[in-house]
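User: Reviewer 2 asked us to show a designed sequence for the structure in our supplementary figure. I'm pasting the structure tokens here. Could you produce the per-position amino acids so we can include them in the response letter?
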């Protein structure tokens, strides 16, 4: 699944402060990089390139996270819808935004959509499951020393015959 996130929409959902926009944007990117790393997600976060003079989008790549700054005169919404339109598999795209027009249009193009609140809750649940799995795997993984010990016990029981297994 590929996720397209309306970057400023997420930024304004997470932050209600007077920090510079660039600082807030970097915090959003760091948050998403961490989530992508732990959960193996494929995310493109799209920000409006307000000051861009470029006719092409600017991109930054971080493992499973791509950060897109739209080109001159293109909004993040338009960029996301264009990517859905160009995709051979729009059903494998989920748009993350609280912009009702964007999510409704994405759904009409055979993509999925999720609200920012829904996405943040889903992320929290996925991270919780990943942590539980990690704890479980660590708790029940045998060391080579323990495996040798168990093998020795098994071999001794096997040599003694089946009747000794009680």
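Assistant: Here is a per-position design you can include in the supplement:
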């Amino acid at each position: 699944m590929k996720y397209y996130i309306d970057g400023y929409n997420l930024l304004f959902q997470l932050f209600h402060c007077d920090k510079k926009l660039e600082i807030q944007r970097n915090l959003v990117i760091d948050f998403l990089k961490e989530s992508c790393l732990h959960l193996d997600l494929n995310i493109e976060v799209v920000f409006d390139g307000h000051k861009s003079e470029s006719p092409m989008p600017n991109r930054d790549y971080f493992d499973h996270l791509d950060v897109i700054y739209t080109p001159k005169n293109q909004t993040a919404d338009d960029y996301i819808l264009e990517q859905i339109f160009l995709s051979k598999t729009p059903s494998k795209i989920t748009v993350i935004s609280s912009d009702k027009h964007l999510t409704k249009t994405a759904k009409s193009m055979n993509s999925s959509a999720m609200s920012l609140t829904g996405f943040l809750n889903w992320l929290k649940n996925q991270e919780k499951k990943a942590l539980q799995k990690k704890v479980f795997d660590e708790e029940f993984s045998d060391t080579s020393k323990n495996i040798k010990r168990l093998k020795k016990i098994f071999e001794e029981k096997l040599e003694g015959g089946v009747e000794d297994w009680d």
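For the response letter, you might also mention the following. The first helix runs from residue 7 to 14. The mean pLDDT is 86.
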